[in-house]
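So, is this right?
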Amino acid sequence: MAGIGFELKKLFRRKGLFASLRAYGYAGIICTGPMLLGVVLQFGILLLCGWVNAQREQQDLLVCMITYTLLFSLTVTSFFSMPVTRYLADMLYEEQEQTILPSFWGSSSMMLVLGCTLYGLFLLVSGATLLQGLLCLWLFAEMIVNWNAMSYLTAIKDYRGILCSFLAAIALAFGLGFVLVVLLGCPVLEGMLFAVTMGYGLMMVWDVVLLCRYFPQSDESPWTFLRWVDAFLPLAFTGLCTNIGLFAHLVICWAGPSGVQVKGLFYGAPYYDVPALIAFLTILVTSVNFVVSVEVNFYPQYRNYYSLFNDGGVVGDIVTAEEEMLAVLNRELRFTALKQLFVTAAVLSLEGALLDLLPLGFNDLMHGYFRTLCVGYGLYAVGNTVLMILLYFTDYGGAVAAAVVFAVSASGLTALSMAFDPVFYGFGFLIGAALFYLVTLFRLDVFTANLPYRVLGQQPIVAETKAGHFTRLGLFLEHKKGTEREERANEG
């Protein structure tokens, strides 16, 4: 994320309320663009479906298909996203920008092949029609590229272009949905699913154009990033386990007593899903604040501290830099937690009046789920911020341990809660998020208590190159690519 911090710092130097709102807006779009787009589109779809008096079964199936597609694509990309981000950061540090765009094509291709194969098999037996299945698979492929592109977009400074792609995607999806369903009378489910697919497609094309405009084309190997997957395998499992902990409670509720079979293998739990979707929005402030506070305030101190080790700084300067860095870190983490606390408290205070204004049919049980999940998501948001700091300090072991605790506890306790009264369903995720927050905070405190030893004493004496399954796969693909080149050259 360091690539965007310098530009945000320039934006925050500008005086005035509008300048601050602009900086926060850019940070929000960059960090939460595809997810926020999904939430906005979900609500927009429901409003349009209600306008044309669509059958409830069609609305539920449409929401299920989009939700399944988004979550499945997130799960596939979550395994590769952190190693790819580490590879991107290393290449930028080494000024090897010619390797970045090939790695984007390579990583996207690998995730597309893996994800489309698995999701395609699911769609074949899901009960969806051929047209519905093709549209879902199309949307899934777009989302794979979109999620992967977000790892690369952090290095791009064209914030206006990123913001325009986000707004254009929303406009196209709503506009096309209105034309197809309201004006032309197309089937609601297929028409809206096509509109959403086109909206995400526009965002994908726009973002890829930005990447191609910023990074140079080259003949570098697109599979080099696979070595980073082997070298930083804990990062891959950290991303995967965090994703499981964040969304497994939804899937478990679909399969539980409150789940409803919409069609075939598409299940939902409307009384739980809708409160969870709205509660998730309350953590966006922490996602934005992480980028703003860490990138703008903490990262310069962090860079200064580590540069003293690299450039031969004296002990006194190192101690002073460490104290200043940790003081800034503690302040920023405290402010982040307080901001999330205030947002959660404000939402809980006003949720009764505000949610009743929305045409979502909230009852007492849904209000209870919303309050419980708001607290759970708030704890997760702060815990995830601490997790990112652990990754800054390269404490990959501590990070993956915390992520595993989150995934196991949130999933296991949610499954356990299915045996009790429905009012307790959200508490499994809440307790899992609380454990996640406590483990990350405890680990950060232990790790930073003796930071010079962590920086110097735990480094390997001899550089090691880890060559695992992913490295061998990359070598195989590169060899195959070279063989094909030779064959084409001989034929020519």
Q: What stands out?
A: The two ends are 45 Å apart (CA to CA).
